[in-house]
Amino acid sequence: MKAAVLTEYRAPLSVQDLPDPVCPEDGVVLEVLACGVCRSDWHAWTGTDPDIVLPHVPGHEYCGIVVETGARVTRWSPGDRVIAPFILACGQCPACQSGNQTTCPTQVVPGFTVAGAFAERIAVAHADVNLTRLPASMDPALAAALGCRVTTAWHALTGRAALKPGEWLAVWGTGGVGLSAMLLGRALGARVAVVDVVGEKLDHAQDLGADAAIDASKGDPVAHLREITGGGAHVAVEALGIAETTRNALLSLRKLGRMVQVGMPAGSHVTMPLPMDAVYSGQLAIYGTRGMPAHRYPSLLSLIEGGQVDLNPLIARRIGLSQASNELAAFDAPAPPGVAVITDFSS
């Protein structure tokens, strides 16, 4: 099979012919239909993710067709079109049994702890507890675009912060996950303000329905947001994983507000100075979130199938395997609007 291999940090991926993956006894092998290119992949590419061992195949936002099943798989057969969360949980431990699969202590993470989906085929462990059937009408590129950013945003808003209709949602950073949070927040009946430093991204978000767009490079974005929202947001999503936006997200909340850390802190941002006086005096809640359990996919897919949210505008570029390197390098600077999805694995 063809795969894009990370052989050196910050270097172009090498498209190679590799052996097909071995099917786990409790898993499946998928023919990959599409795979998103995510900022988390950029963390792997830059060497800031501690799980990466070179050489390595990145890619964690994927969907595909089952081509092989393990002896212990009961729910899936060759030909099924499926999607998986990027955290593959064991399904048996206390965390999984309580519904918190994203905290599974023995989780498998394709693209990080094992080979990922920048490849024609991928092995998926624990298939019976992780795979979800794709709606027949869903474009594989859209399904792949859901893989990390949309599912993480959905769980952040509904599973962590419990966003309510009529509340103000502040989204700090309008990359893939930030734009997803904006679209989903609107679908949930919230009013949404987005904050970024890239005018093109802010214009794109407003074209897609954002109620307000704030350019953080001009003036005090926290003061501007608090003015627009009449005292601060009820919920803030930090979608970049950096100290400045995390601090601003907290300061943008009204009293009793909830902030969700969605962006992955890495490198110099692993430890951040935060305004804990604002947390104390405002009685704020801070939530961490990472991924979404497989059992929550049906609620999101139902929202999409029912026409309550159109996520197709997320997809900005459909690319070939050899173009993934350019997309990863683009994250070194403020990236253009929308997300890239690998749909051609032959070039």
From TrEMBL:
Coiled coil: none annotated. Residues 4-342 form the Enoyl reductase (ER) domain. This is Zinc-dependent alcohol dehydrogenase family protein. The keyword Zinc applies. SMART domains: PKS_ER. Keywords: Metal-binding, Oxidoreductase, Zinc. PANTHER family: ALCOHOL DEHYDROGENASE-RELATED, L-THREONINE 3-DEHYDROGENASE. Belongs to the zinc-containing alcohol dehydrogenase family. It comes from Psychromarinibacter halotolerans. It comes from the Bacteria. Its cofactor is Zn(2+).
